[in-house]
User: What shape does this take?
Amino acid sequence: MAQDQASPQGAIVPHAGFFVGLGGSYNWAGVEQGLTGIGISDIFAGPILVASGSAGGPQANFDSSADAFVLDAQVGYFKRFTGSPWLAGLKFSYKYLDLTSSEKENIPQAGSFTLDGGKTTIPFTGHVAISSSQVSINHEMALMPFIGRAIGNSYVYVGAGPALFGTVTKFANAIGFADIHETELDVTGSPISFSSSDWVWGGAGQVGMSYFLSPSWALDLNYTFAMSAHYKIKYAGRVHEFERPSDDCGNGLCQRLAAGDDAGIFRFNQQSILIAGRVRLQRVGREMRMPVENSDDQPTPDPGLLRIIARAHDIQARLMQNTDLTVHVIASQERVSEGYRLSPSLVDELTTGPRTLTCRSG
Assistant: This one.
């Protein structure tokens, strides 16, 4: 737990402290999608297979973006190196982003189908039409060690660490089409929709500045760049049965069985600019408290501290009156350690009655 220590040259950047903060940030994200679609289709006239086909294609790449203003929360700890303006710390941050990018996609395909028991093969082209491809980045958590340097009433810092993202991916109303004999045919039947929720690891880097309005209150301004690792989502094939008129069945009804596998490779980056208010928690006795500073308040000294000061002055007087008396001997008589000493500056601070010092502090 942090305790107050004076900063050099009258600066108010504390020597160390735990802190919590809340603020707002503007966030924008870029989403990279690589989509593929593979489908197969069999056509039966009653129990007889009259045609079969398959189609696939190269990965189709799509980019999309989204932006939003959101709330951010942070908690952390920092500590300055002794006798140096340099410091180090650790920060955990969380934000509920609710960033959703949505695009209408067409995945190109090429394939072939066979007739007459495989004797005739006819090539064709096609595509998978997706009315809405959505990628939502909902949660972002980051744990970032950082280093910094105190400058006057502020410190600048840079940090980096792991990040974890909560995502939801949705494909709405996917339909496979084949262009055969210059006619576009729906080969998958009713539209298919997919959804997947995933936690994805990544990393984040941050640069920022914390400006102290007082030893306890500060404003934090930072820029963050975060990126996920590549992650793959594969949607299990689904089988559809439907009937429709077809010349391949002698102008009768054909039963078609269709199955499809769709897969996507995703990665996204997220950037933000944040401003947050932070308060440094201080230890009072065995408790952590949020200080409330008011220059109009007139705090009173702690009685226990005054008794300790009076005892120290009495010991000092006895040492001055009896030159044969040593610190070791008087410490043994008073049952205190030989380090039972108070500097003049500390005595002055204690007698003015600061709120964070009591006889139980330490």
Remarks:
- The CA atoms of residues 339 and 362 lie 14 Å apart.
- The two ends are 10 Å apart (CA to CA).
